[in-house]
Design goal:
This protein is mainly α. The chain contains five helices and no strands. Helix 2 runs antiparallel to helix 3. The longest helix is centred in the N-terminal third of the chain and has 14 residues. It has one domain: Tetratricopeptide repeat domain (Serine Threonine Protein Phosphatase 5, Tetratricopeptide repeat), CATH 1.25.40.10.
Length: 78
């Protein structure tokens, strides 16, 4: 999934991260990475859900915290 994300092949990145999550639902990095793809494709609600799930699994995961904050600002600008 990371290779597709870096290559900007976002649809394949989604497919691969979803496969990882199906096999390992507790894979917090896969949730975060899927959220990043959703963020890049302006699917902000889906992105927020993935970042929230990453933080539910690992509350101290700072990447997901930063991404969630950014997403919240895009959904509800101050």
């Amino acid at each position: 999934g990371i290779a597709f994300l870096q290559a900007e092949n976002l649809q394949l990145a989604i497919v691969h991260f979803e496969k990882v999550i199906a096999l390992r639902p507790d894979h917090y990095r896969a949730h975060n990475n899927l959220g990043v793809v959703f963020l890049r494709t302006t699917q902000y609600q889906k992105a927020r859900q993935q970042f929230q799930e990453a933080l539910r699994i690992k509350p101290t995961y700072s990447d997901a915290e930063v991404n969630l904050t950014l997403t919240q600002e895009l959904i509800q600008p101050q």
